[in-house]
Design brief:
This protein is α+β, with helices and mostly antiparallel strands and about 110 residues long. It is built from four helices and four strands; from the N terminus they run βααββααβ. A four-stranded antiparallel beta sheet has the order 2-3-1-4, with no helix packed on it. Strand 2 and strand 3 form a beta hairpin.
Amino acid sequence: MNRVGFMLKVKQDKLQEYKEHHHAVWPEMLDALRRTGWHNYSLFMRKDGLLFGYFETPEDFQSALLGMSKEAVNASWQQLMAPFFESLQGARPDEMMLELEEVFHLD
């Protein structure tokens, strides 16, 4: 199982609404994530909107993203989420995730 960490930046004026959407993620989106190998998926956010995401997958990061890109619900979710993020420059949020290098893991 591969561990993946990534970062994005939520706009300061959208923090609360972003959190509310993630308290009620669409069931079909949750099913798609599970079906494409996203396990133990968590999001953490600082007060300034810096978002750290973590998940485990049998694939690598790019393969996990590719799997989700083939899910119809993902396009709708990414469209809904796009206004919440800084610096997307016309891209979908899942195209702008900055993958972090794992430097330590206590096993």
